[in-house]
DNA sequence: GATGAATGAGTATTCATTCAT
DNA sequence: CATGAATGAATACTCATTCAT
């Protein structure tokens, strides 16, 4: 989707086949990179999985390094889009603390899901793995991905603070703490995404995170 | 000591004796793995950096895979030791909330340092990068490393709760949240360890984390 | 033919086209295997002798083991063809014992030559050397090579027996004995193919073998 | 045995352990060489199988090449001894053709056994395999082994010819033909020693060989 | 534009041999 | 004398990349 759109804006009048191939290559690249890591992923394997010949990858994407960058940016954009979509209807002017908690309990699983889907683990792991070799990747992925979401979330929290529902000094930092409270157990529980987490376990983690957050940021009686 | 001296007298004439080649190899392995990642790290490079011949690596450690495992477990053990050392004198029976905050402000930088030193970044990144290829690594490293520290920290928090200084339902989870609040900004601020973080910035992060933690877990007035 | 010409025109400019690289590799493989044995033969040496790059060998033949198998089967097929060709015009209905002897003296050197040419020694020695490592090789080479020839020869001897020129109970066994009588001295005389055998010596061996065979299998007077 | 004797003549007054080790190494060498071939046989494996440290092999036998030569010569000598022992009581002045045939039928299996025991196959295969690398090996093994036996057998046949039991022009050649008739099917039947041959099959081969030999070399009626 | 074929560079691993003890 | 430890050299194989079609 997102990668398709991006390509479309660049080459709108191209025959359909070209775009399909580019997208097929990027999809295959993601799968193979996620499965094998950057170094172990062979261009041969990606070409086979994409159903194209090897030189086609070089024609379309210029080589392994650039393909990797494109794949990572695609992942970041997709993750950001999903994160923003999850935030879309949050918050909707809660009447009091109980309703705020309800709204947090409703939105949090969708946010957590952004960190727990396979693409997120792949992005995270490849980012950790290859930041040394691709020093520009981390900032770029942050800018195209999680970074934006964090700021939008900060805005929503600020809105709640302005309405008197929360007491927040630094909304961006609070947003980060909120996400940290929601997600900090995920790596351990899922073994970096290699095992599913039981729904009840996940719900418990989320509820505990929200409660800690609310205890910390609810307005204090004077 | 004596072994070191003996080796030294031997080294003067011919650098072939056995010495602590094993340790030299593991040190070099850590450096090269951290710098290049597992796949890109060549046994040649490790041998060169350790100052030994390549077969010596195979004699002592059996091959690249096992060397990697040993390096990672070594990192985990060292990190655990450092973490436990940081916790040693915490808490020391605070008289009230202000002193508790002081003690937290004192211990937190030492804990955060465990997550921000180069070895920790290397361990983290290699773990993320290679958990697919070494599925047993993540649990093993957790067991030998951070996992223990977390439980010990939980015990300390439980002690504070028993003394009435904190209100904690699930100490292990609270310990995780505490560490998450302290460390969640580190990856972004340091670009996964590739840039130093200013002391003041770090202090701000730590203080914010502690304050959020205290607001969330301080006993409420009845 | 035409392919050869085309390739030639290409070769003039750049030796990279595909041509009969496969055949060149197999020829070089035979030479190097024969010279060095399977283990000592290095793929590097074969590639150099074939005038191709090493990976080309892997592209065309999949690896050292398979190349060896192909070389051996090629040798077996070629030897079989030569053996059958030698037998083609034997026997041609001899009028009596003297003419039968003439015909045997005529065909025998061509048969013996099948056992004394360099390719035969190479095949034999590699087969003996590597039958442990390639247990399926001996039966395969036998089936594609000498085995067939033996049966055809047996048929020709049976024809002579039917015509009353020989007295043969078991033609296949008699064929084997015939070949054994012709060839049993070859390994010793030629030091397993490493030295030429004088023509007169060879002729003596052949004549002695034929005479023994004829004395054993000529019809007895009632 | 034989190898032990030889060593004894060289180092009669050495302590027993030294000879034992040398013999253990040679035994292990034979096993490993036979199993793996010369190139694939590692000195490590031989040392392990002999229960000694690697340098001990170099002390006692000077290296892999020389060990191989010694092993091969030992095999040849042992084979020769066995062959001569088999011939010891042959022939014992037969009264007529029938008794001659009996005596041949009695001695032939013992001779054939010399070609069909595992050590013989090992010797044969290693000789074929490594004659290129050890050009002096084939003549040396022949001289120490089969060559002698052939000449002795020739003498026995000559004795029979002198007594009028056989008609032999060239005894050495006849001896070779005799052995060839007895053994030519062994490689095919046993797949170069990798499969056992049924007793009945072997008896049939032997009988057929003897009968052909006798038909060829029995005195003709004038 | 897509491809089959080819390649130069680089990988982990093993081996025969030799010191120093 | 026997050994544990070390090494230089060599091996099979793989990969990202690029021609020529």
From TrEMBL, chains A, B, C, D:
<dbReference type="InterPro" id="IPR039536">
    <property type="entry name" value="TetR_C_Proteobacteria"/>
</dbReference>
<feature type="domain" description="HTH tetR-type">
    <location>
        <begin position="19"/>
        <end position="79"/>
    </location>
</feature>
<keyword id="KW-0238">DNA-binding</keyword>
<dbReference type="Pfam" id="PF14246">
    <property type="entry name" value="TetR_C_7"/>
</dbReference>
<feature type="region of interest" description="Disordered">
    <location>
        <begin position="1"/>
        <end position="20"/>
    </location>
</feature>
<feature type="compositionally biased region" description="Basic and acidic residues">
    <location>
        <begin position="8"/>
        <end position="20"/>
    </location>
</feature>
<feature type="DNA-binding region" description="H-T-H motif">
    <location>
        <begin position="42"/>
        <end position="61"/>
    </location>
</feature>
<dbReference type="Pfam" id="PF00440">
    <property type="entry name" value="TetR_N"/>
</dbReference>
<dbReference type="InterPro" id="IPR001647">
    <property type="entry name" value="HTH_TetR"/>
</dbReference>
<dbReference type="InterPro" id="IPR050109">
    <property type="entry name" value="HTH-type_TetR-like_transc_reg"/>
</dbReference>
<dbReference type="InterPro" id="IPR036271">
    <property type="entry name" value="Tet_transcr_reg_TetR-rel_C_sf"/>
</dbReference>
<dbReference type="InterPro" id="IPR009057">
    <property type="entry name" value="Homeodomain-like_sf"/>
</dbReference>
<protein>
    <submittedName>
        <fullName>TetR/AcrR family transcriptional regulator</fullName>
    </submittedName>
</protein>
């Amino acid at each position: 989707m997102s990668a398709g759109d991006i390509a479309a804006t660049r080459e709108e009048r191209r025959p359909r086949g070209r775009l399909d191939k580019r997208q097929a290559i990027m999809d295959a690249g993601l799968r193979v990179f996620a499965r094998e890591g950057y170094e172990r992923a062979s261009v041969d394997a990606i070409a086979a999985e994409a159903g194209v010949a090897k030189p086609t990858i070089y024609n379309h994407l210029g080589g392994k390094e650039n393909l990797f960058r494109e794949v990572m940016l695609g992942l970041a954009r997709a993750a950001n889009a999903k994160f923003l979509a999850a935030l879309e209807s949050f918050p909707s002017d809660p009447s009091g603390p109980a309703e705020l908690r309800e709204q947090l309990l409703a939105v949090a699983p969708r946010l957590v899901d952004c960190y727990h889907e396979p693409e997120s683990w792949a992005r995270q792991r490849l980012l950790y793995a290859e930041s040394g070799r691709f020093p520009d990747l981390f900032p770029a992925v942050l800018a195209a991905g999680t970074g934006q979401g964090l700021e939008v979330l900060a805005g929503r929290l600020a809105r709640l603070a302005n309405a008197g529902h929360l007491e927040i000094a630094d909304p961006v930092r609070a947003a980060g703490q909120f996400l940290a409270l929601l997600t900090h157990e995920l790596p351990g529980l899922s073994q970096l995404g290699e095992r599913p987490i039981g729904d009840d376990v996940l719900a418990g983690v989320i509820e505990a995170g929200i409660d800690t957050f609310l205890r910390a940021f609810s307005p204090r009686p004077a």
